[in-house]
Amino acid sequence: MVDFAAIRKEFPILDQQVHGHPLVYLDSAATSQKPQCVIDAESEFYRTINAGVHRGAHELAARSTMAFEDARAKVTRLVGANAEEGQEEIVVTAGATAGLNLLATAFGNASLGRGGAAAKRFALKAGDEIVVSKAEHHSVLLPFQELAARTGATFKWLNLTEDGRVRTDNLDEVITERTKVVAVTHVGNVTGAITDIAPIIKRTHEVGGIFVLDACQSVPHLKIDFHALDVDFAAWSAHKMYGPTGVGFLYGKREMLEALPPASFGGSMVELAWMDQPAQYMLPPARFEAGTQPVAQVVAAGVAAEWMMNIGMDQLEAHERTLAGELLKMGDIDGVRILGPRENVDRIGTVAFDIEGVHPHDVGQFIDAQGIAIRVGHHCAQPVHRHFGLYASNRASCGVYNNVEDVHALLEALGKVRPFFGA
């Protein structure tokens, strides 16, 4: 049995008061807090082995490179990818946004003829289609909108059910023989709904398309196996999985990474360079890791991945499912409307809501005054808010360090909002 009370004590930031109240942090969907072991790992790297990776022959460079690649292997195990040397499937990026932009840029480069015959599978042209969903974070929506604009491809989307789930009942109509790329969120960052991605992936592959998964809200909360899911690419950020900011990861099937042309250029990604002929680029993942990597942050992200696996993703998922059930009780409070599924089925502990007669920013300030941190705004997902007839909302989201008392503190505060504002 996992002692989640003891785990909570591993997070030093929670041991403080905000506005005279004990801090209740319910904004993990924006960024998670960090356990002491992750904080220590980043600091220890700088104290002991700080050096550039994959360059230099001195001892510190060797140790740094080993720590960097060991961290990559840990993250790889977390998501069920291939870690075998020479067959790696995890690329280090600056975050999920950077990973998704890397893909969109690389697809665009392939559309310009870069990468040779192997890259033609990624090329787009007028008449081709790119499909997303209406539930997407802007980090999915915008890069692929821009890719469509650059290549002349048609931009399409899957609509949502009334409670905000991605619709899968009309896949044959939306994903057609002309569809080349489908990019969809695994878990909605507004609704908390787990997308039924299996039929979407199946249909995408039936028409010869490439499936891209936004795994930002799933890797920290669910047991993930990208091979079992059969996704082609997936992106996520370390800072949402109890790791540092400034680093993320892009998964790609090995054969696809080998065929994909690079998206950024510079040091450590080129095998041979000349003045009078094109460069010869390195094999993945180095091909996609130009420049100096955020090595200390990657090392700490590896510690976070190992820390999560030691807890057990099944245990973590069950703990957060309990918290989600408590959070959903806010729907019983007068004037509170939940944006997303009301049942605690196929969802995580992320719940966005609207309070009748009170602006979300006023709600956020009132809740903050009670020492409770929640998100306010459109959460970088404006189309899904329009689906619910809103421009903004509040959002509470759980992490491994939260407990039932945290949720009950929020529910108590929410019950006072409308009376306070005279709504």
UniProtKB/TrEMBL annotation:
<feature type="domain" description="Aminotransferase class V">
    <location>
        <begin position="24"/>
        <end position="410"/>
    </location>
</feature>
<dbReference type="InterPro" id="IPR015421">
    <property type="entry name" value="PyrdxlP-dep_Trfase_major"/>
</dbReference>
<dbReference type="GO" id="GO:0006534">
    <property type="term" value="P:cysteine metabolic process"/>
</dbReference>
<dbReference type="Pfam" id="PF00266">
    <property type="entry name" value="Aminotran_5"/>
</dbReference>
<dbReference type="InterPro" id="IPR015422">
    <property type="entry name" value="PyrdxlP-dep_Trfase_small"/>
</dbReference>
<dbReference type="GO" id="GO:0031071">
    <property type="term" value="F:cysteine desulfurase activity"/>
</dbReference>
<protein>
    <recommendedName>
        <fullName>Cysteine desulfurase</fullName>
        <ecNumber>2.8.1.7</ecNumber>
    </recommendedName>
</protein>
<dbReference type="InterPro" id="IPR015424">
    <property type="entry name" value="PyrdxlP-dep_Trfase"/>
</dbReference>
<dbReference type="GO" id="GO:0030170">
    <property type="term" value="F:pyridoxal phosphate binding"/>
</dbReference>
<dbReference type="InterPro" id="IPR010970">
    <property type="entry name" value="Cys_dSase_SufS"/>
</dbReference>
<dbReference type="InterPro" id="IPR000192">
    <property type="entry name" value="Aminotrans_V_dom"/>
</dbReference>
<comment type="similarity">
    <text>Belongs to the class-V pyridoxal-phosphate-dependent aminotransferase family. Csd subfamily.</text>
</comment>
<comment type="function">
    <text>Catalyzes the removal of elemental sulfur and selenium atoms from L-cysteine, L-cystine, L-selenocysteine, and L-selenocystine to produce L-alanine.</text>
</comment>
<keyword id="KW-0663">Pyridoxal phosphate</keyword>
<dbReference type="InterPro" id="IPR020578">
    <property type="entry name" value="Aminotrans_V_PyrdxlP_BS"/>
</dbReference>
<keyword id="KW-0808">Transferase</keyword>
